[in-house]
Amino acid sequence: MFVHDSKHTERNLLFELNRAWDALSPTGAVVADDVDLNCGFHAFSAAQPDAPICICVSEPLEPDTVRQGSTGVFAVGLKLHPATRTQERGKSNKDTTKF
Q: What is the per-residue pLDDT across 34-51, written as a single tens digit (0 to 9) for each?
């Protein structure tokens, strides 16, 4: 898993997510905070059309006036769909189990 919560520019977000995505295991995930501050996560998710993406609203401890509606937005991207991950896990078990 990779969590992005550093410099929130589109350039930095894309750089970190792309590098992390390449380094993740086949069952890895990325999480990015403050994805509403620029279009970087949208560009990243467009480049990963088969990856399940979830964009979520979060409630800050204090209102953040920089954001629309004073709430935060974070996103999660899975490298493989959970059903595929289950198939991969089963395949791995079959390959390594000796009877």
A: 898 899 999 999 999 989
